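Q: A reviewer asked whether we had any structural model of the full assembly, not just the individual parts. We don't, so I'm hoping you can provide one. Inputs are below.
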Amino acid sequence: MQKVKNGPDSAALAVQPEPSKARKTWRRLRENHPFLVMVFPAVLAVFLFNYLPIYGVLIAFQDFMPGDPILGKYTNWIGFNNFTRFFTDVQFWPLMKNTFLLCIIGFVIGFPLPIIISLMLNAMKGKRMSKTLQTIFNGPHFISLVVLVGMLNLFFGRYGLVNNIAASLGAERVSYSLEASAFRPMYILSSNWQDFGWSAIIYIAALSNVDPGQHEAAILDGASRFQRVIHVDLPAIMPMISVMLIMSIGGLMGVGYEKALLMQTDGNLEVSELIATYVYKQGLTGVPDQGYATAIGLFNSVINVVLLIIANTTSKKFSENSLW
Amino acid sequence: MSVKQETKKRGPIKLGTGDKVFYAINGLFLGLMALIVLYPLYFIIIAAISDPDAVLAGKVVLYPVQITMDGFKRILQEKSIWTGYLNTIIYTVLTVILSLVVTIPAGWALSRKTLPGKKFLMIYFIIPMFFGGGLIPFYNVMSSLGLVGSMWAIILPSVLSVWNLFMTKTFFESSIPDGLIEAAKIDGAGEYRVFTSLVLPLSKAILAVMALYYAIGQWNSYFNAMIFLQEETKYPLQLVLKEILIASENTTGGSGETILEQYRMANQIKYVSVIVSSAPVLCLYPFVQKYFSQGVMIGSLKG
Amino acid sequence: MASLTLKDIKKVYPNTESSPKKKKKKQQAEEPGKEKANLQITDEGVVAVQQFSLDIADREFIVLVGPSGCGKSTTLRMIAGLEEISSGQLYIGDRLVNDVAPKDRDIAMVFQSYALYPHMTVYDNMAFSLKLKKMKKDEIDKKVREAAEILDITQYLDRKPKALSGGQRQRVAIGRAIVRSPQVLLMDEPLSNLDAKLRNQMRAEIIKLRQKINTTFIYVTHDQTEAMTLGDRIVIMKDGFIQQIGTPQEVFNHPINLFVAGFIGTPQMNFFNDCKLVEKDGKYTVEVLGSSVELSPAQQKALKAKGQRSCSIVLGVRPVHMTLDDGGFTGKIEVSEMMGSELHLHMTVNGSDVVAIIPTVGIDLEAHSIGKTVRFSFKPELMHIFDTATGMNLL
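A: Here is a predicted structure for the entire assembly that you could use as a starting point for your response.
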C-alpha cells in the first residue's frame, strides 16, 4: 500500500485558511449572478403590477380623493370607517348573498362535472374517439367572454333561438337577459359549457398515468368496467381532486366579475350585482369613491385568503394533501 | 377434449352484459355533451349565412335558409371592427414578445437550485397568486405610472402571469437533465451561454405553450382596455365587439315593433362578428391543442 | 496533463431540507441523490466524503471504486467543480482550484448518461467547447476530425445523438472530452449504461485511447473488474472514507482490511471466521477448522517485527488459491459451475460456504458433481490474516 504524500507545497498548504463562510457566499453570488439578472424583469413586473397595488390598499383606511398621495402630509386616516360603512350599506347583504349564491351554486355544479367527464372519457373504448371528444370539449374555452355573453344574448334574446322554439310550442316570449331569475342559471350553465372540458384536462392527465397493471389485476379479480372506474380510476385522481378543491375554494369569491359585468342589465341588477362589480362601479364610474371601493375589495380578498387557509388546513387534517 | 373445444370458440374477448350497458350509456352521454358543445357554434355559422328574416322567424334551426353572404359584405364596411382587429393584433404580438422575454429567463432562473435568494424569490412570486390589492389600487398604480389612456396599459400588466412563470419553472425542472447543464459548464459555457445555446433550443415546447397562453389571454381580454382606454381608435377587438354585441342589449325597451326592427338590422352583423372575431383562435386551436394540454399537464406536475 | 493533489477533502451536505416531500424530490434527482442514502448523518449534515487525501501524478490513470454511496462520484464532481468542496484543498498542477469555476479548471468529463446536446450534431457537440474558447474555425475542424478519427466516429459527424446507438453515443461523449486536450479527463461510470459485450469492447478502447492521448485520467466505477484492468492505481472507498490506495497488484495481493479483501476479486475471497493466531516460542501458527497451519517464513518475519500477540482472526483465502488435493480439509459440494476453462465449486465446510476455482484440464467432472465430498488445502503464503476486532490485515 502506498502512503499518502503531501501536496506540492506542504508548507503553503498548512497555512491555507479554511474558506470562510463570507467568501463562499461571495463565490456563489459571483458564479450565479446571471440568474438574478434573468429573474429581474419578472421581479420588476410583479413589483409594479402586484406589490404596488397591495401597498395601495392603504387607501382603504383613508378618506381618499383620486390624485392624493398614498402617504402624504394631509392624509386623513379614518381607520375602519370605510369597512363599517360597507357593513351598514343597504347593498351589503344583497351583495353578499348574490356573490355567495353565484359562487356556491357554480361550485356545486362546476366542480364535479369535469371529474365525471374525465372519468367517462377515460373509460371510453375507442381511444381516438375519446381524443376527438376532448378536442371538441376544449373548444369553447377559447371563446372570449365578450363573445360568450354576446352569444347568450343572441340565443336567449326576445327573438333568439330559444324564444323562437318556445314560441312555436306556444309559450310567451321572454327577454331572458332582462329577467333576474334567469341570470344565475345562464351565468352558471354558460360557464360550465365553456370550461368543463378544459378543467377536465388535468384529471385526464392524472388518469393517463394510472398503471395499466392495476386495471388488468382488477379485471382478473372480476371487476366490471364501472367497478374499475370507482375502485381504480377514482382513487388515482383523488390527490388531484383535493388540490383542485382547495384551490377552487380559495378562489370561490374571486368569481368572474368580468363576465357578470357583461351580463348585467337594468333588469337583472338585483341578482347580478356582486361585490367585485360593485367595487368597479364605486371606484371607477360616476363620482369615484376610491377609499370605500378599495375597502370593499380588500374585504373580498381577505375572505378569499381565509377560505383558502381553512380549506388547506382541513385538507391537511383529513388527508395527506395540501398546498403547503 | 374440452381444451380443444375451448380453443375453437375463442374469438375477441366477450364483454359482460353489465359492461356493455356501461359502455353504451357512457358513449351516449358523452355524445350528447359533444352535441351541446357543438350545436351553439354550428348555429352561429348557419345563422350568419342565412337570410336574417328567416333567422328571426325561427326557420333556421338545423340548416341555413336562403344562403347569403350579405352579413360578411356588411361587416367589411364596419371600420371599427377592423381597427379593433389591427389593434388587437398589435397588442397581442407585443404582449407575446415581451412576456416571453420576461417569463422564460425568469422561469429558468427559478428552476435552478443555485439561484441566490431562491426561497425569498419563491415566496415573493407565490404571494400574488393568492392575494392582491384589488381593482382600485391597481388602477391608481397604472395612473401614477402614466399609463392610463396608453396602449401600454393593455400590454405591460399582461407580460407576466405568475401561473405561467411557475409552469415554465416546472417544465425546466422536469425536462432539462442536470447532466446536460454540467457538461456545458465543463465545456466552458457560462450561465448566459448555457441559457442561449442549450436551454432555449431545448424548450421549444414551453416557448410555444407560453406564447399561445399569453396570446389567447390578450386576444380575449376586454376589461383592462375598458377601464384604461378612452380613444376609440385604440380599442381592441373585444371592446368593439362589446359595443356591437352587448351594449345595445342593455338599452332594449320600447315597443315590440322597434325591437324587431333593431334585431333585423343588427342580428346578422352580430352573428358574423362572432365568427370573424373567434375564427382565428378557433381555427388555430385544433392544431395547437396538444401544446395547450401539455401546458396544463406541466402545471399539474406541481401538484 | 497535470498532476493533482487532494488534501483532506471533505464534503458535507448541510441539513437544510427536512420535509419528507423535498427529500423525495432530491432522491429522484439523480445519481448523487441515490448515493446519499446510506451516508453518515452528523450535526453538520450528511457527510459524503471525508479525509480524502491523494496525490495523482501527471498522466496517471486513477480509478475510484467502491459500492454505491461510498462518495466516489461526489469526489469526482468536486474535482470537476460541480460540487462545492466543504473543506480541504484541491490542486490541479500547482494551482489551488477550490474556488475556480469548472470552465476555468481545464478539465473534461465523460458522464454516465453521456449528456450529449440533443439539438446539436455530433460535430457540433464536439466543437462546442472549442467554439466557446474562440478557436479559429479551421483549427476546430482539424481537432474535431482528429478526435473523430481516434474514436472511429468520422462517419457519424453529421448525425444527431438520437440517431446513434449506445456505444456510438459513448464514443461521442469521449470525443467531446478529448477534443480539447484537457489537463485532466474525468470519467463518471462511463460504461455502466452499455451491455456486457460493448462494455468489454469499450474498456479495451479506453486502454488504447490512453496510449494515444496525453492526459491524467480519473475514472469512477463500481465495477472492480474495470478498476483492476484500467487503473495505474486504484482508490477503494467506503462510506466516504478511503480504504486503500494502491496498484491493482497491491490491492489484490495485499488488501488492507476485510472490506477491500472482499470487494476486490471475483468470486469473493473466502473468509474463515473464528480462527486463531497463536504465538508460541516466537513461532506463529494459525488454527483453522480444527487443524493448525504454520505460516511461511516471510509472514513469520512480518508478524514478529510488529510484535504481534496471539489473537482471534479471520482467515482469508482467494478461491483461485485453493487446491484440491489430499490435504487438510474436507468440503461437500453444493453447486458445481462449469465455466469452460475452470470449475467453480461451492462447498460447505464446517457449516460455512467456501468457493474454490480449479482448472478443468484433465479433471474428472464426475468426481466433482453435486453432493460429492472433496479434500482441499491452501498454501500458507497465500493466506490473508485479519484481526477479528479491527478487520485490519495483520501482515
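A: Points you may want to mention in the reply: Residues 17-38 of chain C have pLDDT under 50 and may be disordered. DSSP finds eleven helices and 20 strands in chain C.
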